[in-house]
Amino acid sequence: FTLPIEVVHVDGRARIPAIAEPLPPAAAIPDRHLPFREVIEAGGARPVEEHGILIGEVHGLEVCRVVDDPVTGDARLEVGVGAHDRETFQMLHGDRPTVEALADVVRSVTEHRSIGAPQHPLNLLAASRLLRSRLIERPEFLLAESVRAVEPPVPRANVKDQTPCVALATIRAADGGPSMDVPVVCTTGIDLEVVPWATDVARVYGGDRVWIAAAARDVIDIQERLAALARVPILFRPIASH
Q1: How far apart are the first and last CA of the chain?
Q2: In terms of Cα–Cα distance, which of 29, 36, 42, 30 is closest to 76?
Q3: When you count CB atoms within 10 A of the terminal residue's CB, does the N or C end of the chain come out lower?
Q4: Taking 90 as the threshold, does the pLDDT of residue 137 lie above it?
């Protein structure tokens, strides 16, 4: 930011400077996990790679994940929304072919996360990723040629908590030059931490700007004032309908 910021720990009456942790380094998907991309696609989900983990999403909601068996070390695809759901699904339906089991979950999740669906727990989870999936399907909302999902600066803790997510929007240069990628932070609700979060996105993906995509009703004055203090221009892109 353009204004000085000091972060300290308080130890009794002493103030100790806080040391920022580095962002985690990029991690590749293990080779033994890569064949499951075809299984995820065959089941109707979209493969997403984040911090060395391969998952499958339906309209932004994680419905499967490739994991290593803790006993044998063999890779397998677990179906379910979140760790507890995957464990329960494995106990109840472990003998079902993975593609068939995944396709059933995909159909159910698609019904609840489609535009106009009544409110349901499945369309309240991962709301920022639901917005990102809409932007991937409708890049014209950002006046972009295309939008693709990329990993966040740090791994998310779980599926339940609402956190921003990141995409890259490919836009045509105004001067007629080659197209460029602009990092896009997708968020939902009035998130007062999204601007600092976007500065980490700028550190990871570079570029001369970062966009924050949010529903128009969720963009408030204090967020835009904070964004104006960032060294890398951070611009809100209100989404009127998604």
Answers
A1: 31
A2: 36
A3: N
A4: yes
